[in-house]
Amino acid sequence: MRFALRRAAFYLFTAWAAITINFLLPRMMKGDPISAYLQKNQGKISPEAVAALRTLFGLDTERTLWEQYIDYWKLLFSGDLGRSFSHGFSPVTDIIGTALPWTVGLVGLATVVSFILGTVVGAVIGWRRGRGSDAVIPVATFFSTVPYFWMGLIAIAVFSSALGWFPASHAYGKGTQPGLTPEFIGEVVYHGALPAITIVIASLGGWILGMRNMMITVLDEDYITVAQAKGLPDRVVVRTYAARNAMLPQLSSFALALGFIVGGTLVMELVFSYPGIGKLLLDATNAKDYPLMQGIFLVITLAVLAANILADIAYVILDPRARQMEA
């Protein structure tokens, strides 16, 4: 309970600081969403409409900054992240809710697969160090160092243009009606296969190398020697003693990776024209759509905090030393 309260206080303070910065940052920048909107519609907006827009976006000059800050928190608690003027004044929550599932579904699944596969392969290579399996490391590391946009373009050229195995872009085929039907789900899986594979290949090397190095470090510990001296089977030593302790540092990296899933893989979404949250953020930045940018930043921040909370819980469950230290 003491550990939970301490961590909860820390994350609540972090969330408050992030939300406050998210509120202040657009107001500290030159210009505002209303000014950007008026530049695109010069002479088409009446002064009364401009005043109404400033009130809508919480930028009413007649209200103090503190009053605007209180209004901002009230809107957050009511689930209102404002309106996006680059999407016809649609609610920001609706726009993010439309793009978020695409990013979480694709990048999230690819990240989880790469973490599990890289951790397992790294554990095996670390346990069997000095053998032929070590040849996997330079190959995986090479793919991790290749710029992602280059890898994506090569994958499109080979597997889409030359071989015709996968589509080159978009989340589903043109003319397909979205819905929870087997045909639509099949189209989504088919279109997402190539970008997902490239994400796994690009990120696999880091997980393999990190787990392999930690396995080598853990295998030199005394408790591994004692476990082997007891005559325990290798699979028990690897799974229960070595891999369980070696993967603890991996959890922190995995938590950050999970948190930034919400931010999406911007380069991937641009290369494959995928309708995710990363591309939405780029479009909002180009349009100077501050409400949409604020909403996306807020969602990303909260996702990172939630992922770190889950990592803390998993760390305490897997490592008895952490529980003893907190006790």
UniProtKB/TrEMBL annotation:
Recorded topology in the membrane: Multi-pass membrane protein
Subcellular location: Cell membrane; Membrane
Pfam families: BPD_transp_1 (PF00528)
Transmembrane regions listed in the UniProt entry: 7-25, 99-127, 148-168, 188-209, 254-275, 295-318
InterPro entries assigned to the protein according to its UniProt record, in alphabetical order: MetI-like, MetI-like_sf
Keyword field: Membrane, Transmembrane, Transmembrane helix, Transport
Domain ABC transmembrane type-1, first and last residues per copy: 100-311
Superkingdom: Bacteria
PROSITE patterns hit by this protein: ABC_TM1 (PS50928)
Keyword Transmembrane: yes
Family (UniProt): Belongs to the binding-protein-dependent transport system permease family.
Protein name: ABC transporter permease
Organism: Microbacterium salsuginis
